[in-house]
Every structure is written in C-alpha cells, then in structure tokens.
Amino acid sequence: MSSGLRRREGPAGWVFVTPMLVILGLFLVVPILMALWVSLLRWNTNDGDPFSGAGDFVGLGNYKHLLVTDGLARSDFATALRNNVYYVLFVVPLQTVLALLLASLINAKRLKGRGFFRTAFFFPSITSSVAIAIVFKFLFIGNGGINTMLSWVGLHGPSWFNDGRGLFWIWADALGLVDLAHPPHALTAHSFMGLSWWDWVAGPSVAWFAVILLVVWTSSGTFMLMFVAAMQDIPVDIDDAALVDGATGFRKFWHVTMPQLRPVLFLVLTLGLISTWQVFDQVFIITQGNPEKTTLSPAYLSYSASFTGQDWGGGAAISFILFAIILVMTLLQRRVMRERDRPSRRQRREIAEIRGTA
Amino acid sequence: MRPQRSTARVLLYVLLAGMAVVYVGPFVIQIATSLKSDPDASAHPISLVPHPVTGAAFRTMFGGNPTDYVDFPRWFTNSAIVAVAITAGRVFFDSLAGYALSRLQFRGRQFLFLAVLAVMSVPGVVLLIPKFLVLQYLGVYNTYTAMILPLVVDAAGVFIMKQFFDTIPTSVEEAARIDGAGVFRTFWSVVLPMARPALLTLTILSFQGSWNEFTHFLVSTEGPEHLTLTTGMANLFTGALGGGQKFPLKLAVAMIATVPVALVFFLFQKRFVAGANAGAEKG
C-alpha cells in the first residue's frame, strides 16, 4: 500500500521544487557564472552584450590589477581590505561582549520589566538599515547630539564622519609615541600593495569607528537573544550547586555560566565574522567611502567600481575575491559548529528523563 | 549578604536603564526632530521638545505636491506592492519546496537539500553585479518583475519550512492519502493547516526582510518610477540634499518607513524571537 502511494511521489516531488529550482537557478546560480565570465573581461554597459562577444577578454587581468600590478586599483583594494579587517576586529568582539552583557542583564532572576528591556534592545535589529543609518548620521554630525553630550563632560568631539585620522595614530600621538604631523619615516618609506606601512597600521578612522558603533548597536540585539536562549538552557541544578558553593556575581558568571555558553559563543563569533565582511548599506548611505577612502569596504568598492566607474570586470573580480574570503569564514563556522552538534546538555538531560520514566 | 544583594539589584537596574536610554534614545530623538523646524534641529540636536512644533516635514511628505527629491506616497506604495508580492511568493513556494524536501520520496532529494544549504551561505553582497547582469540580459531591468521575481523564493525560508515539516507526524497525511487524496491536495488541505505557526513566522520574516530590502532594489532599478522607501531614502540622503540639510524631513521619512515593520514587530514579537533563534539553528 505504502509503496503504491510513494510511487506517485517522484514526479510530484519535482513539481513541488520546480519554482525553487527555477528562481534560485536563474537569479543565483546563473548570474554567478555570468559575473565570473565578466570578471575576465574589460567591459562596460555601452559595449553591448558581454555574452555574445562584446568586451575584451583579459583573462585574469582584472584579478592581477587588484592583487599584483602597481596602481590605483590595487591600492584602493588594499585600502578596502585594511578597512574591513579593522572593522571585523572591532565589530565582532564589541557586539559579542555587548550582546553577552545585555543577555545576562535581562536574564537576572525576578527582574521587573524584562519584556520591555528585551524589546528595547532587540528593536534596532529589525528596522531598516537605511532608516537607522540616517538617524546615526544626524547624531554624529559635527554639531550633533553626540558632540553636544560630549561637551557636557568637557570633551570636544571630532567631526565624526569627516575625520579620516586613524584611531591607532591618534592614540599613539596622545601617548607621545609618534607625532601625527610628522609620521615616522620608517613606516612611510615602505609599502605593501601600494599602501604605506603607516597607512596599514592606522586602525579604523574616526569616521569608520562611528560606523562601527552604529553596527554594534544595531546587531547586538539579535545575538543577545541567542545568548538568552542558551542561558535558559542551562540546567537549574548547576546554578544551585554554584550558589551552595558560595559562587556569586562575576565569579559565578565566569566559572559556571561561561563554560555552558561556549557553543553559542562560537556561533555568535563566527556569524559575526561572516556578516562583517559584507558591510555595504551603511557605507552607501553615510560615507560613500569617505573621508580619504577610510570607510571603503570591498563590497562597496565592487559596487562603485562597476556602477559608477563602469569597470565591470574589476568590480566583478572584487566580488569574487570577497566571496572567497566569506567562504573561508563559512567553512570555518561549519567546522566549529560540527563540534557543537554533539548532543547538548539539555538533550542529554531530556534523554535521561525519558529513560528514567520509561 | 543582604545589603550587598540590594546594592547589586540597584546596580542591575541602573545598568539596564542606562542601556535602555542608549537603545531607545535615538528613536525618541528621531521622533522629536521630525516635528522641528530646520534651524531648531541644527541648533538643538538632542532637545526632545520641538520649538516651535511644526508639521512641515509631514506636509512635504504627504502634501500631494511631490517634489523631485521626495515622493513619499509613491515610495510607500512601491514598497507595499513589492513586499506583499514577495511575501506571498515566499510563503507559497518555500512551503512547497520545504514539504517536498521533508516528505516526498524522489531521486535527488538529498542532493537538492545540500544545494539549498550551499545556496544559503552565498553572501548577498557578492550578488549585486551578477543580479544586475542577468536582469539586463533578460531584458527586465527596471521593472516590477526585476524587483519581485528574484526574491519570491529564498533558501533560508525553504530550510525553515523543511525543518518544521520534519517535526509533523506522518500519520495524518497518510490517512488522507489512503482516502484517495492526491499529493497536492494532501499538502494543501491537510498539511498546510497544521503548519500555521511556521507559516506565520515565515510570513513575518519575509515581510520584514522585503520591506527593509535595499541592495536588490538598488541594482534592479533606476530612475524615480520604481523607487521604494529604502532606495528613495538612499536617494534623499545621498543626492542633492546629501549634506546636513533638511534633517527633520529625512528623519520623518525614516520614521514613517519604520512604522509598518514596527507594528508587525510589536504584534508578533515572539515570531521574531523564534526567527532569530532559527538563525542559530541553521548554522
């Protein structure tokens, strides 16, 4: 009987998945192949159809221009890579720590207003990145809200989105290690990929740091929820045992709670690594890569090279290098998460309970 | 022990209140500023009391006199059309595919599921140029088709539905099948009604995602006719008025653009929480 029913399912199965196959094939798989071809061409939209011979075939020329050949394309790409590395190094730890802090605050026992606080912290995560970006632009303009508040405590804030000075420069200058007006010759005299060592070690610029704050603020809510879910999975008896042993506050958090959160911590870190390489919207809306290209990201560079600069081959090549970077991060995540997939404590407890009642 | 405890409590609430100000503050400032005059907004950027209170920003938006830089009614209508069409498409096609991948026995099913997982990990930003190329090639660039069709199926939604159907017992549908109902009929009138919670989650996440979608509309359209709220705002923020001008208007547009998703969020908050944690599962 059952096999008779199953026999009719073959064609039905394929009919059911056809819309998915058509859409994902036509608008995801095929376009990637098309762009791979264009990344081997020198082509712009006035040249005609690139898939019937228009444009010059240059082989790996576009990739070479980005990685090897001295020139503006390479130094811009190096700048974008540098910016994104600093972006990752700042956003990932900051958003993870903030999410963890928020989660442990709203997970406190007998907390009044828990729902309100959770909503408040999570709300920015679900709003439009474009709408939020304009709010932050308003807050961070030279005579805006942030600088007004800084002036209350006697600080003179920078003109955030117009300030291209690297944070590491500013800090080193404040410590008296270097003089910003006369950067050390040893660093300016050498360069890598068309970018001087001095520029490589700049850190995120003040403008880029403001974008970093915006993104940390927006994304921490989602990660907070993941931590909260994991905290609620921690068996109550572990908590109680810790209290009996006299562990409270930070000691308890560090020695009892943290080890239990390791899997979700890895997840949050790797999800952060993947998403931070894709920063685009905020750059497009707020800075367009300015000032002094210190907020250029590879994603934005690929867009502007193609749509504005009409260098479609170069733009597509940037996309594929970025794709490769993100792919490495994703594989890293899959690897880390496979270790997580061993049965969790909760599952083990449930299994034990089921066995106990059976 | 006791006094220490209550100090910790006070500290907890102080910290929470401070964080709440950081997270809610920008939205409060946004609302206040949308009711200010331009000079007031730049002179008193964090004052929460507009002086004078003015509806100028909203009159510009809804005044029936669309200017070349803000045509709010058109943007809103386009966003609504596109979001509703994409959401409807995703709910239907994602559940079809999710059901097939979960339940129907056919050759290649395992491979297709792995392909869906692979597609899910393709980052959106590397698709900007590819999408433009294919839409040009197909001759649909700058049409509603170009805006809607590529988004009516999403791999993550298929995955969510597949995971959900995996949890439904097979007995009910087998009974329906033995009674002679076909595969589609069983799916439509027996399985889908049982999947209501998952369908609701998918509807809400799809609506939120397509309402907030920016990059796809950026590369699939040009010119004023197909502007949505996100691309319209992007134009307004980066175009001729890109500098420090007209913040009350810009913040008012951004605020009203946020309202539909905010309403859905406050009505169905649990679904969003479920969605965030589904993101954790798919890792």
Write the layout of secondary structure elements.
The complex is a heterodimer of chains A (358) and B (283).
Chain A: H1 2-7, H2 9-38, E1 41-42, E2 56-57, H3 61-67, H4 72-106, H5 114-126, H6 129-140, H7 145-152, H8 167-174, H9 185-188, E3 191-192, E4 195-196, H10 197-200, H11 206-232, H12 236-244, H13 249-276, H14 281-287, H15 298-308, H16 312-340, H17 345-357
Antiparallel strand pairs in A: 1-2, 3-4
Chain B: H1 2-34, H2 38-43, H3 56-62, H4 72-102, H5 109-120, H6 128-138, H7 144-148, H8 155-166, H9 171-178, H10 183-194, H11 196-212, H12 215-220, H13 229-238, H14 247-267, H15 269-281
Helix pairs in contact in B: 1-14, 3-14, 4-8, 4-11, 4-13, 5-8, 8-11, 9-10, 11-15, 13-14
From the structure above, extract its key features.
A: 358 residues, mainly alpha, 17 helices, 4 strands, B: 283 residues, MetI-like fold, 2 domains, 0% strand, globular
Give a structural overview.
The complex is a heterodimer of chains A (358) and B (283). Chain A has helices spanning 2-7, 9-38, 61-67, 72-106, 114-126, 129-140, 145-152, 167-174, 185-188, 197-200, 206-232, 236-244, 249-276, 281-287, 298-308, 312-340, 345-357; strands at residues 41-42, 56-57, 191-192, 195-196. Chain A is mainly α and 358 residues long. Chain A folds into 2 domains: 2-63, no CATH class; 70-166 and 203-357, MetI-like fold. In chain A, a hairpin with a 2-residue loop joins strand 3 and strand 4. The longest helix of chain A is centred in the N-terminal third of the chain and has 35 residues, at 72-106. By secondary structure, chain B is mainly α. Chain B contains 15 helices and no strands. In chain B, helix 4 (72-102) packs across helix 8 (155-166), helix 4 (72-102) crosses helix 13 and helix 8 (155-166) runs antiparallel to helix 11 (196-212). Chain B is globular and about 75 Å long. At the A-B interface, helix 1, helix 2, helix 4, helix 5 and helix 6 of A face helix 1, helix 4, helix 5, helix 6 and helix 9 of B.
